[in-house]
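The data layer described in this paper is built around a simple, fixed record for each protein. We quote a single record here, exactly as it is kept in our systems:
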Amino acid sequence: MQCVRVWSSLSRAAHPAAYRAAYRAAWTRTQSHAAAARLDLSGIYPPIATPFTAKEDVDYQKLEENLHRYAKIPFKGLVVQGSNGEYPYLTEEERVEVVRTVRRSLPTGKLLMAGSGCESTGATVRLTEKMAAAGADAVLVVTPCFYKGKMDSRALIHHFSKVADSSPVPVVLYSVPANTGLELPLDAVLQLSQHPNILGIKDSGGDITRIGLIVHKTKTQDFQVLAGSAGFLMAAYCVGAVGGVCALANVLGRELCELERLCVSGRWEEARVLQQRFIEPNAAVTRKLGVPALKQAMEWFGFHGGACRSPLQPLTEAETQQLRQDFSSNGWL
C-alpha cells in the first residue's frame, strides 16, 4: 500500500510537515483508486448546457431551474462542463462554480462527472483537484489537441497517467474527434485502462467496431465504456457499452432512459424502433447544427437553453426550420 510506503520512507520526527503532506497525498490517491474500482457508471447522462444572461454571464438561476427538472428524470447522473457546456468559453473560475452549483442541487445518489481537461498536463491536474473539491464524483478528461500532430500514444499515455496519478477522484477518458480532430488511439486506451484510477472512456467517435474492440480487449479490467452520442446508443449497448453521455438527453432525457431500459432488458425490437427515432434529431443537435441547435431545442421542450456565448451564433431561420423538421418528422414535436 502507498500509505505504508510513506510510513517507511519518511522520518516523522525529522520532517513532520513533509511527512504529513506525503501521507495525505498517498492516502488521497489510495482512496481515489478504491473509488475507481467500485464506481458504477452504467446509465444515461446529459452533458448539460450552460445558460447565459443577455450579457453572456453564466445564469445560475436558470441553471438551477434546469437541474430541478432533470432531477425528475431517471438519469444516472450529470456531466458538467463537457462539450455541450461550452467549457472552452468559460473561465476556470466559472467552470468550477458551475460544478459547485450543480453539486448543491443534485439529488443524493446521482453521479456528478465534471470536465477538467485543459491543454497542458499541469493545468489539467490543478483543475481536476478543484473539480473534486467542488463536488465531482469523477472527472471527464478530454484529449489535449492544440498540438495534435504531436499528440501520439506516448504523449497521451503520459498526460492521462499523470492526471490519474494525482486525481482525488476517478478519471474517465474522453475521445471526441469531431471537436478535437484527434481520436484517442486504441493502444493508448488499452494501456490506460490498466491504471487503477482510470475508470472508463466516453467515446464520441461513433465507430462501433472500435467501441466493441475496447470492451473486448479490456474485459479483464474494471473498465467501463460510455457511448458519446444518442445516435449510436443501441449499437453501443449491443457491443458491451454500459451507458451513454448524450447531448440529446438534455431534451429527450426520459425517452433515452427508456431506450437504456429496453437495451438492458434485451427488448431489442422495441429498442430498435425508439433508436431510429433519435437518429435525425440527434444529428441535428450535434454534428449538423451543434450547441446552438441543442439550446434551441431545449427551449421548445421547456428547459432554459438560450443563446450561446460568443463567438457561437444563434441559428438562422432556415436552420431553425430544419431543426424543427428533424424533431417533428420523428414524432417529438
